[in-house]
Amino acid sequence: MAETPAAPQGERKKIIFSGIQPTGVFTLGNYIGAIRHWGPLQEEYRCIYCVVDLHAITVRQDPAALRRRTLEAYALLMACGLDPEKSILFIQSHNPHHNQCAWALSCSTQFGELSRMTQFKDKAARYADNINAGLFTYPVLMAADILLYQTDLVPVGEDQRQHVELTRDIAGRFNGAFGTTFTMPEALISRSEEGARIMSLQDPTRKMSKSDPNPKGFVSILDEPSVIMKKFRGAVTDSEAQVAYAPGKDGINNLMRIYSVFTGRDLPAIQEEFAGKGYGDFKSAVGEAVVQGLAPIQNRYKELMEDKAYLERCYQEGAQKAMSVSGRTLEKVYKRLGFLHK
Ligand code: TYM
After folding, report:
1. CB 80 within 8 A of CB 35
2. Domains of the chain
3. Among the four 181, 183, 246, 285, which has the fewest Cβ within 10 Å?
4. Residues 233-248: tens digit of each pLDDT
């Protein structure tokens, strides 16, 4: 991320934490808004990345599919450049400290705060027959994920900003009541036009989501080239037929942002490139750029999935490393709360 603050020389390396749900193959939204930034951060920061399977069950999951998707998500993160030698890369349910810390934090979180979370309101509307307590307390578990590692920066897409803000409120309240225990984290969100929020290809007023019931709305990063091309050619746009970034042109704006990410060209340059050309040409060009950009990730993913023993070794070691960090914070939390030593 161009606006990523540089890690100061000579001081302790800042800590980065982020997570992703294994609820389906990652979309272009996940990739552009979050994951593509995670690899480069490994060079300067102490990075901890997590497949958040505990969060995934706030929506009913098929157990066999969840197991498969968790491994796939783990491999996909590696295929996107996360290196288990450079970062701690683990699966959330393998580290019980997250559940333990979440309980402690839930007692420092107000009902009213959780009621205001827009993701809760959206999901409660979408899954009206299963508005479970986990869906409601989801942000508390996310706060535990972040605070257990004394995280400084949380690279996420725009939609997660509110959860990181709540994490800060919870940390501040706990620190105020019991003495400084947690580092105050900050969201790290791409401030450029390109990428903080990638929209559905079928309804560009909604964010692209892997749980969209209409698969034409999202591109998954493992989609075949022909499928990617088809989805972009069918993307919903306006009827002006002018490739220009402007208010109200949500569909075209979204495609321009995607194209910008994959070609490195800025929005005025894209507008110039397609001056006098129709939307058909533009949509095909976006599709081709995405196909090309994703090819190395798709190839690496296939290789990784052929070596399950290696993946298993990586996630087991990842969990051990994660626990050795989070255990120190949890111990401090228990002590501060007044739990009798075992
Ligand atoms: P999740 O799994 O929904 O998404 C993972 C990351 O992808 C970003 N993202 C997007 N960015 C731009 N445009 C989009 N259309 C788009 N869709 C998703 C998200 O902002 C996110 O960064 N609650 C989190 C997972 C989580 C987490 C954490 C994140 C659990 N614990 C601790 C950070 C720190 C979530 O559901 O992400």
Report:
1. yes
2. 15-194+308-337 (3.40.50.620), 215-302 (1.10.240.10)
3. 246
4. 999 999 888 999 999 8
Ligand 1 contact via 51 beta carbon (within 6 Å) = no
Q: Whole-angstrom distance between the N-terminal and C-terminal Cα of the chain?
A: 45
Cα-to-centroid distance, 289 and ligand 1 (Å): 24
The C-alpha atoms of residue 294 and residue 290 are separated, in whole angstroms, by 6
What pLDDT digit, counting tens, does each position of 270-279 carry? 999 999 999 9
- Which residues are 154's β-sheet partners? 187
pTM: predicted TM-score of the whole model, two decimal places: 0.92
Give how far Cα 54 sits from Cα of 90, 127, 140, 142, 177, Å. 13, 18, 12, 10, 28
Residue with token string 């996360």: 82
Cβ of residue 171 lying under 6 Å from some atom of ligand 1: no
Atom of ligand 1 nearest to the CA of 30: 7
**pLDDT score, position 212:** 87
For residue 134, is it left (φ>0), alpha (ψ between -120 and 50) or beta?
alpha
Catalytic residue IDs: 123, 207, 210
